[in-house]
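Protein 1 of 2
SEQ + STRUCT:
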Amino acid sequence: MIGVMTDTEKKEKKGWFRRLKEGLKRSSNALSTGITDIFTKRKLDDDVLEELEELLITSDIGVSTSAKITANIARTRYNKEIAPDEIKEALAEEVAAILEPVTRPFVLDESRKPHVVLVVGVNGSGKTTTIGKLAKQYADAGKKVMLAAGDTFRAAAIEQLSIWGERTGAPVMTTKVGGDAAGLAFSAYEQAKANGTDLLLIDTAGRLQNKGHLMAELEKIIRVLKKLDADAPHSSILVLDATTGQNAINQAEIFGKVCDVTGLVMTKLDGTARGGVLVAIADKFGLPVHAIGVGEGIDDLQPFAAMDFARALSGSEQP
């Protein structure tokens, strides 16, 4: 719903921006310090542009994206003196222009019962925690949520999801360690449909790009779900760990081929100086960015906002 924000909503937005800025401090410090060093009493000439482009590349924004951003900044400012704060705001505007088209919070399709979401990503990316946080948010909103512990390779993953189920009041379907993940997904879908569940979140094992048999199993889960509903899974969310930097780009490419990724969640932005990789991924793949995480707390997974992220990344102040 679009309208005038209440005082409470404004306060919450400011609070989240502060947390986002704090979380992205390691990423923004490198950019901010570099920009200040480059632009102190200098004109925006070819040498300065080259330094700026190199700075963006080392911030994991990617070669082609960095070149595009630099060229756009130079278009109206070439050979002019420009202060560090001006360049930070210009950078924020260019980054936001890349991110705005992919800013798309996850929306539950209430015409489907259940809306089936397959959550994928490599080990340690934060899949299970992301599922738990999404379950909490939708359960708190009064929706009927069910979880399926499809990461059958790790007992810890099954246990972790069970704990989230207890916290959220959501039933969790599990199987033995090493059990058939596709069979589990099939049973979970049947039960969720019978129970009138609104949202079924299916965890999966960490698929390493060089493990063909794991990718084959993921494809099997999708095939099995389609036997019950040709459109299932209705969403495939890829969870990426920001600390992996450029490896996140490879993961987005490979998972996109295997399971038709419909959206991204990026976690652990508070633990890295590589937050710029989200800009590179958005520019290259155009995949919707649903949410970002800047901490372990339940409220640290928030819908993605392009300009907030861009300003926090560049070190520009919120207007």
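Protein 2 of 2
SEQ + STRUCT:
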Amino acid sequence: MELTNQPMLIWFVVGYGIFMLILGVYYSKKVTTSDDFILAGKSLGPIVLMGTLLATWVGSGSVTGGENSMAYSFGIWPALMSTLPSLIGITTIFIISSKIKHYGKHTVAEILEVKYGRWASLLAAFIIILAFVGIVSYQFQGLGFILSISTGISPETGTIIGAAIIIFLACIGGLMSVAPTDAASAFLVIIGLIIALPLAISAAGGWDQIIANVPDTHTSFTGGLSFLQLMGYYLPTLFLLLGDQNIYQRMAASNNDNSTKRGTIGWILALVIVTPIISVLAFTSRSIFPNIDPGMAVIALTSVLPVAVGGILIAALTAFIVTTGNSYLLSAATSVIYDFFAKYIKKDINDKQKLIYTRLLIPLLGVIAFLLTMYFPTVLSVQMYSYTVYGAGITPALLAVFLFPQVTKAAGLSSMITGLIATLFWEFFYLESTGINSVIVSVPAAIIVLLVVTVFTYKKDNGTCTAAQ
């Protein structure tokens, strides 16, 4: 079937956009300090926390990359299995959630500085910018796909408009306004996906017809991928989630430990519902639209569903993409201001100035993110790069703070440097020739360096380790 735009859908996108704007402006009036802007005044209850965790994690990375692109490009089983890394990551975070909450830091770089020193903090801020700006870039692309389907404009033009929308919404209220809009978006997405699933399968002619229309490899367990290739897609997700600054900030923003744990459990339950449905929808889209950009798989289904259902679904997808873009833009700007600018350029900065400078920086980072959309050929490729830069450069050293108190200052810093350099080196020189994502090399290298350097420096650094415990 040929993909056609559906002009009626734009009204659902606009309607939900107006709702998000009103909600965002309302909550932005509660922002009076930088803590309000970055950590929502540490006021999030379990329901809002669950919603903002889900909306932050299941954004364009899932509905245009991740499960979506995996199901369309390789088949249903590789996509369904891609939920497992997220569940492992969330379970680990659940175990250490109280420790994250009581650290109470604005950024993971601040956590790393306590353990490893200021150079670790600076390196972390640099890695966060590299990774999060990349993540924001494919949120722009995802919204561009939606605007293309609903208006008929080119995805490129849609991406420009999408960038402007996300940048504006990120500026107005920070986490104080992002978290409630996240929660509303999460519930809309769950409803939209559940309603759309049976109707999409019916529009494709039923499950047997879907199976008949896709390549044979798309029904195999591995989708024609080798074990290393599969791990190359799964490990970046796991290691980003285990150390994701956005997630840590939301944990720190909850109003108490009980809210943190209940919100995390709700996040797990919602994820088990949402991500398999995305996989099945994208697989269904492969049967109906065999020649579209993989990133458009689920979005394209809105053109064959009843207008009301397609409208709810496209509004839901818009919501997830926008809120994820807001979150990662905000998080990247926070790192620049708190971990670099306030420490080394303007040391006498006051709270009001932090708030102003963070808001001013968001558009600049947004422009850089937009420029990245021109470099990577697919959403999935930029997603894997962004996840791996962060997952290899930060996560092993960060998890060691909570799970491995014997780790030394030298080990943490060495691990971060190794993870970053190994990722960039592989991405630029070996990814294209091998077809294997850099995570297969960089994450093991970062972990090995962390352990080996700890063994050789533990006695020398034992005083620091004891103090940290």
